[in-house]
Amino acid sequence: MAVYTDHIRLLFGLKLKQIRLDKGLSISELGQISGLSVSYLTEIEKGRKYPKTDKIAALARAMDVDYDTLVSLKLSKKLEPISELLRSRFLTEIPLELLGIDPSDLLELLAEAPAKVSAMISTIMNIGRSYHVSVERLYMAVLRSYQEMHDNYFEDIEQDGDRFLTEFASSHSLVDESLLSSLLRTRYNYKILTFSRETNPELAGLRSVFRPESGTLYLNNHLSIEQKTFILAREVGFQYMNLKIRPYTYSYVEAESFEQILNNYKASYFAGTILIRRDDLIARLQEIFDQPNWSNDAFLGLIQSFNATPERFFYRLSNLLPKHFGIDQLFFYRFNNTAGQTNFHLTKEMHLTRQQGPKSMVDEHYCRRWVALTILQELAFLQKKNYVGALCQAQLSTYADTGNTFFIVSVAQPYQPHQQQNMSVSMCFKMTDTLKSKMRFLNPLSPDISQRIVNEACERCGIFDCRERVAAPTGLQKKRQIDAMKKALEELN
């Protein structure tokens, strides 16, 4: 695989620095001999500038090397791992600038200890391949880090949403399917059609498909009104914010670049701003937070009043709570479950806190005391009696191992025909003095909020009298065996 053009100047800078150091020259000495300024040489060595032919010739003469040797992409053995790294596309697949990392700084670190750092990165990449981590999952992990860095709040997109509402919607009216469909057809020349899993079974797992060559948006006809409205708002977001590089299916069939993932996030964020108005939500939340008692029905009613899915509503909460309420110790996650089965799958997560919370597990069982799981079990039980609505429950969960306590609101909703699984989404808040001061019903605790001691996984849990346990504490037992072995080793003379 060829080295990308953008990386040639980085390679040249590293090579120049390595030859200069091998020749025993300081950067100021090289500047005096070559006639180039120290600041300009620094820019070259950091890979920010590529010198013209005459300046390359001057550098070659100053260091007594051939011109062709200096411009060749072939590196010394010491720097070869860097070339391998560039050819792996690591620096093009990962948008380092978005995460506040200058690629030249990374390469400078590599130049100091190229074999060791490259080996570390190669190890991480090999682990990813061993666990079948796709490029899309890698992109999504980077996106989550980007969201967490900014507390999942982006003022520029909020302002785009405000401008749209001023232009196309009255101050208190809901942005609905009719408005969005009309706007897409008349302003952006869309054709909107539907498909079904009966006529297109291969597309049953997709919610929408956009064909740019014809300007046609195909919607899965099994979508709920809330899902359909969100997809239409997302399409408006792509057009209104002029996001050209975008995915054409939802969900993804294949992610071609991180920019696709990022622009999809921006369009989805925009959709949230116009469907769930910031000022309205803040005012309604304040009303709930000021109540002395928590009400599951009132919170579920709040979600439904915005004609939003619970997942989209919680995501909007994650945008606004850190910025407007100072509540930033929170995380969001989604579980899927097939009614009647005992397997639960963590299908989405976002952490705005580094504290304890659900993480994807391999060969372990999530704690069955989590409200996110118990509410799914209750929903499945009610569905046997033809219940068709959603459920909301709140729980104060204290982790047995760490003592960390979280206030968790979980909403479970029935499966959609194209999904065949029930889903619970949860917003979790770390119990802090700030949280207690903002949510009146936490101090004292509202009687409608249950309290439970929980843990992470059955395999690592020391609550031996747990009736919900579904697996033996094998991990905990192994840890105790190792601890006992270490203690015995210390006692040997």
UniProtKB/TrEMBL annotation:
CDD domains: HTH_XRE. One of its GO terms (molecular function) is DNA binding. It comes from Larkinella knui. InterPro entries: Cro/C1-type_HTH, Lambda_DNA-bd_dom_sf. It comes from the Bacteria. PROSITE patterns: HTH_CROC1. Residues 16-70 form the HTH cro/C1-type domain. This is Helix-turn-helix domain-containing protein.
